[in-house]
From TrEMBL:
Name used for this protein in its record: Maltose/maltodextrin import ATP-binding protein MalK
Domain of life: Bacteria
GO biological process: carbohydrate transport
Family, per entry: Belongs to the ABC transporter superfamily.
Location of this fragment in the whole protein: 1 to 237 of 348
Regions annotated as coiled coil: none
């Protein structure tokens, strides 16, 4: 499902964090919101998910204007850096929770949980508690939970930041595989250009609440649009 932000604006009190942002993510595309800490990546993602209300502009999913829809009525799955799993629930209960909230029948929930757990390859871990899982496995649970309602849009906020280097590599290709297999339209927030480059079709490089350049990774490296872009890409974290 195509995502379209027009003249997006977000303020906190007197501070403008997102200023007049325009962005289109094509159906089935995975795009990175890349930029230094504090430039407004998470704020943008939270506004798209409906967790934050925007102060100006519009948001469309396909032809549908979702600007004023509350988060639970938007067809969105979100994965955060810290996974935010429910510690007292089993893996199966964690994944199925969004369906339980919707009051689906238990048999239906179980079938769907089994299916999605296979997709993210944790079918053998359904009875465990989150604490009994590795970081990578926890991240797979968070992905499964984000996908269980079959959303049109997947939003990922620094999903690999808490993983060690080896797992980070593994989960990079795993998230990309899932995105391709499901055909879901996805936005990945990251401050890591290597992550953005290796996982996404296009990169939107942000500066102070605006998009400085948007292009394929190759185009961005070959022809940076400004000194800022060149300097950001030239100084990997
Ligand atoms: P990023 O994800 O790119 O690191 P954020 O979107 O989290 O950046 O933050 C962008 C700016 O907005 C920062 O200056 C941050 O301090 C500010 N900000 C974020 N959330 C809030 C909030 N709830 N209240 C006030 N300021 C906020
Ligand atoms: Mg952030």
């Amino acid at each position: 499902m195509r995502i379209h932000l027009q003249n997006f604006k977000k303020t906190f009190g007197d501070t403008t964090v997102i200023e007049d942002m325009n962005l289109t993510v094509e159906d089935g595309e995975m795009i990175a919101l890349l930029g230094p800490s504090g430039c407004g990546k998470s704020t943008t993602l939270f506004a798209i998910s409906g967790i934050h209300k925007i102060n100006g502009g519009t948001l469309h999913f396909g032809d549908k204007d979702v600007t004023n829809l509350p988060a639970q009525e938007r067809s969105v799955g979100v994965v955060f850096q810290n996974y935010a799993l429910y510690p007292h629930m089993s893996v199966a209960q964690n994944i199925g929770f969004p369906l339980k909230v919707q009051k689906l029948k238990t048999a239906e929930i179980n079938a769907r949980v089994g299916e999605i757990a296979e997709l993210v390859q944790i079918g053998n871990l359904l009875d465990r508690k989150p604490m009994q899982l590795s970081g990578g496995q926890q991240q797979r649970v968070a992905l499964a939970r984000a996908l269980i309602r079959k959303p049109d849009v997947l939003l990922l906020d620094e999903p690999l930041a808490n993983l060690d280097a080896k797992l980070r590599l593994e989960m990079r290709s795993e998230i990309r595989r899932l995105q391709r297999e499901t055909g879901i339209t996805a936005i990945l927030v990251t401050h890591d250009q290597i992550e953005a480059m290796s996982m996404c079709d296009r990169i939107a490089l942000m500066k102070d609440g605006r998009i400085e350049q948007i292009s394929t990774p190759t185009q961005m490296y070959e022809s940076p649009a400004s000194h800022y872009v060149a300097s950001f890409l030239g100084n990997p974290p």
